[in-house]
Structure formats: C-alpha cells, structure tokens
Amino acid sequence: MLNVVYAEIIKLKHTKIYWLILVALIPVCLWSLMAVSPKVGPDGTIVPLDLQELFYRQGMIVTILGPLLFSLMTGYVVAREYQERTINQLFSYPVSRVSFLFVKLLVVWILISITSILSFLIVVSSTLFVIHQLDLTTVLLGLKMNLLICVLSFGTIPVAAAISMVWKSVIPTAVLGGGVSLIAAICELGHSMDVILFPWLTPYWPVRDLAQGLAEMGPNPYVIPALVILIVTFVVSLGFCIFYYTRADVHSGT
Amino acid sequence: MNYVLQTHQLTKQYGSHAIVSDLNMNVKAGDIYGFLGQNGAGKTTTLRMLIGLIRPTSGEFELFQESFHGNRIKALERIGAIIEYPGFYLNLSAVENLEIHRRLMGIGNQESIDEVLTTVGLFDVKKQKVKHYSLGMKQRLGIARALLHRPELLILDEPTNGLDPGAIREVRELFLKLAKQRGITFIISSHLLSEMEQVANRIGIIHKGRLLEEIDDKTLQQKTRRFLEMKVDDDQRAAYVLEQKLKVTDYQVAGTGILRIYECLDQTDLVNKTLTDQNIGVKEIVLSRENLEDYFLKLTGGDKLA
Ligand SMILES: Nc1ncnc2c1ncn2[C@@H]1O[C@H](COP(=O)(O)OP(=O)(O)OP(=O)(O)O)[C@@H](O)[C@H]1O
Ligand SMILES: [Mg+2]
Q1: A50: region left, alpha or beta (phi > 0 left; psi from -120 to 50 alpha)
Q2: Residue of A50, A184, A70, A68 whose CA lies nearest to A123
Q3: Is the CB of residue A84 less than 8 Å away from at least one CB of chain B?
Q4: What is the pTM of this model?
Q5: What share of residues in chain B are helix, strand, coil (percent, to 5)?
Q6: What are residue B60's DSSP bridge partners?
Q7: How far is A90 from chain B (nearest CA, A)?
C-alpha cells in the first residue's frame, strides 16, 4: 500500500498542481501583510493587531477558493489517468482498483492539508515577524479552525472525483468548482448562519465561529444538520466512486 | 499440455452488437502467439478482457490454468502488457515512470530499471521527460516496462506500431530471444501478416469478432510452402511421369492441367525436360509460394488485409 501512495505522489512531480496551492496562499499572504502592517486609528493611536480577525479572514479565503481549487486537484488526480491514457496501465497492476481510488483521495486530502496548514503558518509567521509576540489561545483557535477546514472540505471531494471519473476530464469539475466558489463568496460575505447547510460551505462553520461583531452571534444552530448533510454527501458519492471505479470497463486510448 | 491461456466462448457485446463472439483461444507455454486481424476485428477488445480492463459479457478464461475470475491480482503479477497505446506520465522521465511501475509491481531491485532500458536502447535518454519521446521511443519504453518485472506472459497490442523498419527488426529479434532464453510466452496482436509470419509460432486469426482459425508452426509452413506450379496438357500423366522418373511424391493437382510439386524446386530445367521427353506439353513452369495472405483471403472470404 505504501508503494501505491509513493507512486501516486511521484506522479505529481513537475506538475502544475502546486500552483493551485499558491493560488490560495498568495491572497492569504497579501491579506496578512496588510493586516500586520501598523495602522493608525482615527484618534492617532496605533491600532493593535487583531489575530482572531486575521484567522477569520484567512479561513474565508481558503473556504471560498477551496471548492474551486480542491475540485481542480481532485479532477486532475483522477482524470489525468484517462486524459494521459495511463488508465489501461494503471488498472493492469496487481493492485485493486479500490486501493487506487483510496490512495488518490488520500493524496487530495494531503494537498488540502498542505494548503490549509501553510495558510495557517503564513498568518502565524507574519504576525511573529512584525509584532514579535503571539497570543497562544488565538493561535490554537486558528489551528483548530484550519484542521476543521481540512476535514470538512474533504467531505465533498468524492463528488468531484465521481464527476471526473465519469467525464474522464477535469473540465466539468473545474466549471462546477468555480461556480461553487462563486456561491461560497456570495454566501460568506452575507454571513448568514444557515449557509453551512450547503455541503461545500460546511467548512465555513469553524471560520464563522471566529467572526466578531456580526449580527447573529453564538453557536451555530445548523451544525448538526449541516454535518449530517455533509456526511450523507460524502458516503453517497464515495459509494458511487467505489462502484463506478471498480466496475467500469476501461477504454481509454481509443 | 501446459496452457498459459485458454478462453472459453469468450464474448463481449456492446448493446446488442457483439464485438467478440465465442472466442476459444489456446496459448501454450513458450508460444509466440500472433493474434491477427484487420482494424476493428476485435483484437484490442479481446486483450482488454484478458487483463481485466473490461468484463466479458459471457464466457470465461484461464490464465496459468487458473480461472481469471477471482484470481485477477495473482495473474497480473505474472503478466506484462501494453494495450492499445503505451501510456506514460509525460511530466516524468523514463526512469521515474519505470520506478512507478517497479513500486506498483512490488518488485525489489532498482538496477533492473537500467537493465531493461539498455535492452531497448533507451539508456542514454533515461533522464529525459517522456513528453519529449517519439512514439517509437514510447513504444520501446513500453516494452521495457512490460519486461521489468520479469513476466511469464507478455500481452502486446500492436507493439511495433510507430516503429521504423530497423526498430521492428530489433524488436522482433528481442522477442525471439526472450522467448528462447527466458521461456516467456507472448501474445502479440497485429494486422500485419508479414510481421506475424516472421515471429509467431502460432497464429490465431480473428475476423469480425470470431476466431476463424488457430494454426501452428507446421501447418503454417505447409500453407506457406514453396512449389513449382506447371500448366500441362495432361495432369494425370504428368504426375505419373514425375513419380516414376524423378521420384516426386509430394505433389498436388491444383486444377485441371495444373500441377504443383513441392520438390525439385531448383530443377526447373530437369522437370521440363523429363515431361517434354514423354510428350507432355508444358505451357508454363513458375516457382511460387502459397502465402498466408492467400490463406487469409480464403478464410475471410475476400476481405483484404493490410
Ligand atoms: N466501448 C465500445 N463501445 C462500442 N463499440 C466498441 C467499443 N470499443 C470498441 N468498439 C468496437 O469494437 C470493434 C473492435 O474494436 P477493437 O478495438 O477491439 O478492434 P482491433 O481489432 O483492436 O482494431 P485495430 O486494429 O484498429 O486496433 C470496433 O468496431 C469498435 O468500433
Ligand atoms: Mg486495436
């Protein structure tokens, strides 16, 4: 199994997939730079840096761009085998097709984690760099938010995988992912609590919990139904992926 | 007899359209089995079934004398295959691609990568990205990959596609060497008769999804024997004379006034003289060869083969 993971990781060498991570990291960097640079308030005093606010914005950036970027990553990892006509070879190995599916999903999860954790590290290090001190409680809040983003974002990944394996192309996933990111942007800027019911927006739940000064505050009452919807989405789409990936006739190259 | 592959009524349908019908293939250990058929005959479809890329609609088969169904993983460890097109990760070098193969096949030593690359003559370009390879180089890399895990059976779908004549000869010699030295069994599909004749010791002819015939080496040789064909005015008497005077026993009357003898091929003069001395009119004598092409045309009822 380790060999299968290793093989899947070398396949990503010299690919543009890492640019996708950068697409998320660059706005995080810019935002952090802006936030940590000293600001002068209306009364002439220096406004102290609000780390929680910074994490909140970082979370928004990752969860808005996430649907697009993460589905592109999934689409690439799954569909390239068809587009580059390697699927014949892949499925001729003495390895079950389910293992390949799981390893591909694992790789996507690793990519999501890298994106989220690097964003977190950017916020932490830019803060440290400028004001040389950190409020540990807030850092932990930020870390918790990012870990939850990783887990919750993964919930919709099998949907992207399913679309990519059925269409054997990254394009449908990319288009849908782009659409969902747009919806995410609109919903997150509206700050409404119930948007997390939409499975691609469930990752917004831990982000919104860090928000300050919104009209509706306090624990999000939609968490349980949102999680149920997300889990159902995950299970159903993963089930479909397993069924389709293991059963389908493979014709690529014709 | 030790069969590496036997298929039983293997059938693949798409909708109501049968692409492969009731195929009964028999490949023995050590065979170089030429799987011959025109474009669209169903070669690739059959080979896909053999490594489990697609499921048969009905029928079954055994690889290494074990039913494939339920033993897929075990069988695949012993097979090297190129189906349709040698697919590689273009962003990676030849070595990296083979390294992936080595890992997924679960085999140990890394030196074998250099060894197979040398075998197919790609050692010097092993660090280049496969993106920059020509089709012929990819084809050779595909063969290297199929060999890397020392398979017992190689299933190659048109492996000489994209190779120039020189490379085709090299590859052919490589196959013959591997069959001889390592006892590897080959199933090689092709639409080129001439190519198959030179390498295969058994040929299965598939046409419109049906296996028309499986012929072995010896039968093949008979089908492709050289002979003297003569037009004479009395074939019976001519045959009698040749039997008596020249001790010719291997002959055949191939039509009224047409006699084929499979002996005395370089004694056209003598044959001619013997017959005319007995007052048998000889209109023509030509040295000719029954080839697989004619044979194929006969079998398929006239459909030309490339
Ligand atoms: N997935 C599919 N659905 C429907 N028909 C198919 C499918 N795959 C192949 N066919 C048809 O099956 C027939 C046989 O195809 P196949 O690829 O097996 O031929 P082949 O002998 O390998 O030909 P070639 O020499 O061109 O490679 C073709 O007529 C093709 O159109
Ligand atoms: Mg073919």
Answers
A1: beta
A2: A50
A3: yes
A4: 0.87
A5: 40, 30, 35
A6: B8
A7: 9
Taking the Cβ of residue A250 and every Cβ of chain B, the question of whether any pair is shorter than 8 Å is answered with yes
**Ordered per-residue pLDDT tens for chain B, 306 residues:** 689 999 999 999 999 999 999 999 999 999 999 999 988 999 999 999 999 999 999 999 999 999 999 999 999 999 999 998 899 999 999 999 999 999 999 887 888 999 999 999 999 999 999 999 998 899 999 999 999 999 999 999 999 888 888 889 988 999 999 999 999 999 999 988 778 888 999 999 999 999 998 988 777 777 767 888 899 999 999 999 999 989 998 888 888 899 989 888 888 889 999 999 999 999 999 888 766 666 777 777 766 554
Identify the three-state secondary structure at position B211: strand
Residue B46 alpha carbon to ligand 2 centre in Å: 9
What ipTM was predicted for this assembly? 0.90
Domains and CATH numbers, chain B: 3-222 (3.40.50.300), 225-289 (3.30.70)
- Inter-chain residue contact B84 with A6, CB threshold 8 Å: no
Please check whether residue B53 touches A, CB under 8 A: yes
H or E, element range at B28 = strand B26-28
Residues of chain A in contact with residue B88, where contact means CB-CB under 8 angstroms, are 84, 86
Q: Measured between CA atoms, how close is A121 to chain B, in angstroms?
A: 30
Two tokens, residue B225? 């024997």
* Contact assignment for A88 to B52 by CB distance below 8 Å: no
Residue whose CA lies nearest to ligand 1 atom number 28: B40
- Closest to B42 in 3D by CA, of B32, B30, B56, B31: B56
Mutate to test the interface with B, among A10, A17, A87, A92 (most CBs of B within 10 A): A92
* Minimal CA separation from B11 to chain A, in Å: 14
Q: Does B90 touch chain A (CB under 8 A)?
A: yes
Structure tokens at B198: 């030179």
For ligand 1, is residue B7 a contact (CB within 6 Å)? no
Give me the phi and psi of A20, to 5 degrees please: -60, -40
For chain A, domain boundaries: 2-36+47-247
Ligand 1 atom nearest B209 alpha carbon = 14
**Residue located via tokens 């013997």:** B274
